[in-house]
Amino acid sequence: MNNFSDDLNSFCPPGSGDTNSQNLASNGDSLADDSNWVDDEVNPSQNTTSQSLKSPLNSNPPLKVSPTLVTVETAFLASAASLIWLINYYFPFGPLLKIFFPIPMALVYLRWGKRASWMTAIVSGLLLSVLMGPTRSIVFLIPYGVMGVQLGACWKRGAPWQWSMLLGTIIGVFGLFFRIWLFSILLGEDLWLYAITQATAFLDWAFMKLGLLIEPTVLMIQSIAIIAIIINNLLYLFAVHLIALLVLDRLGNPIPRPPSWIGTIIDYE
């Protein structure tokens, strides 16, 4: 037996016993580590609970900018703006629908920026040129398309109401005179001078009937007409701001807050 053990030891290289013992020890440690894998694993229910705590139900996820979504919303709001103009032209409801003319372009600016807003205005003009002719489409684009982009830019930058209303009034006055100039070219007659002449003749007749020794002049009538146009556009822009305040807040795209005295009158915060 001693010879057999000596022969067996002769086949084993030196240090193999130590190596085997080290392997057994490492295997034992790995088994010990594997025995605790349940403790190291995260409980799925706890993970779900932590995620639910981090993202509550009432939190709105960030809006992903997708070219498809931008294109769809631009096309939809462009068609909505064209439809509002078309309905108001054939079935006029007074100033009710007119207030909504620039709002689609302003909404697109608040959501997707300047380029999408200009695309909405241009596509609306193209749709109206197909449905009603190029003249009506140009009259819509100037001033209401440009006004919508301007309002969206002011609201996006948080400009006060006074500033956005002032710029909108300038665009509205320019749009009215552009419309008079365009129709004067198409009709071959100066419509502004014609309207001023008729108003002067009417006031002269009215003052004569009332016994007033006042002779209205063309310059005075023009000044009164320009002041009335400016006041009319200011009131229109004020109404547009009020409607946008009520509508766009509910759509998740709020505009700057009104002055304190307006908020007190309409009881809106």
Unreliable sequence segments: 1-61
Number of domains: 1
Counting DSSP E segments of at least 2 residues, the number of strands comes to 0
Secondary structural class: mainly alpha
Strand content: under 5%
Euclidean distance between termini CA atoms:
102 Å
Number of helices: 13
The dominant shape is globular
The overall pLDDT, averaged over residues, is 80
Major sheet: none
CATH secondary-structure class: Mainly Alpha
Tell me the radius of gyration.
38 Å
The SSE order reads HHHHHHHHHHHHH
**Helix content estimate:** over 70%
**CATH topology (level 3) name:** Arp2/3 complex 21 kDa subunit ARPC3
CATH architecture: Orthogonal Bundle
Give a description of the structure:
It holds the Pfam family DUF2232. It comes from Gloeothece citriformis (strain PCC 7424). The chain crosses the membrane at residues 93-110, 122-143, 163-182, 191-208, 220-248. There is one protein chain. With 269 residues, this protein is mostly helical. It has a single domain (67-266), classed as Orthogonal Bundle (Arp2/3 complex 21 kDa subunit ARPC3), CATH 1.10.1760. It has 13 helices and no strands. The protein has helices at residues 2-11, 16-35, 37-40, 44-54, 67-90, 95-98, 103-112, 114-132, 134-156, 161-187, 191-210, 218-250, 260-266. Residues 1-61 have low confidence and may be disordered.
